[in-house]
Specification:
The chain is mainly alpha-helical. The protein is built from nine helices and no strands.
């Protein structure tokens, strides 16, 4: 049985990150959309639908594919462009520091068998590096000392580390079960752990996509200015 720290720690982190995204957008419709999506995810988890792993494809996979599609479309929408243009690299990259407490939570949750070991930094997940370096890069950027290549390099590294943990998580699900029955990733179908892939992973992905957009926007502005 997961401890209160495990249950409420994840829930509070997801709510905090969701609030951060909503605040960054400065749009009430975005905040409402996030709230609706999170509520739907919880409802599906509580109903037991997401835990029907024997269905093909599993409902959780379908839900997450829909979430990824929404995240990508939002990042490349007019609103996403406005957010990328308005927010600084310090803000966009600094926000990704939430991945540090997330990885610490995952390590703790692994001891309670909520998260399989391969999804932690004791296993094959190195995403804690993204959280740690986000703070460093954001601090350098805030001082105006960060060159463009640092933003590009950090975002490429963070994107690859995120992709790595997503692949591990998918391979740990019952339909693939690459790591054995003792190390299956099934608790993400339960509430509130559904917010791990449904909210926190989406926030990390959105953050990277917005940094890519900002890099392109800045490059286009420099080209237009003849720099």
């Amino acid at each position: 049985m997961p401890s209160d720290l495990t249950v409420y720690g994840l829930a509070l982190l997801a709510l905090a990150v969701a609030a951060l995204v909503a605040a960054g957008s400065r749009r009430p419709e975005v905040a409402l959309g996030i709230a609706v999506i999170m509520a739907v995810q919880l409802g599906l988890a509580y109903s037991g639908i997401l835990a029907q792993w024997k269905r093909t494809p599993p409902p959780l996979v379908l839900m997450l594919l829909a979430c990824f599609a929404i995240t990508v479309v939002f990042a490349f929408s007019r609103i996403g462009e406005e957010i990328a243009a308005r927010l600084s690299f310090t803000a966009l990259i600094g926000a990704q520091a939430f991945r540090l407490p997330l990885e610490l939570w995952m390590q703790h949750a692994s001891a309670e068998r909520v998260i399989p070991r391969q999804m932690t930094y004791s296993g094959s997940n190195l995403d804690i590096v993204s959280g740690l370096t986000a703070m460093v890069v954001a601090a350098v950027a805030a001082r105006g000392l960060a060159p463009r290549w640092l933003f590009t390099g950090w975002n490429a590294l963070g994107s690859l580390l995120l992709l790595n943990v997503i692949v591990i998580a998918v391979r740990s699900m019952p339909m693939i079960n690459a790591y054995g029955d003792f190390f299956m990733n099934t608790r993400v179908a339960d509430a509130p752990f559904v917010w791990l892939p449904g909210v926190l992973v989406q926030a990390a992905l959105l953050g990277h996509l917005l940094v890519w957009r900002k890099l392109k926007i800045d490059a286009d502005l420099q080209t237009d200015a003849g720099v």
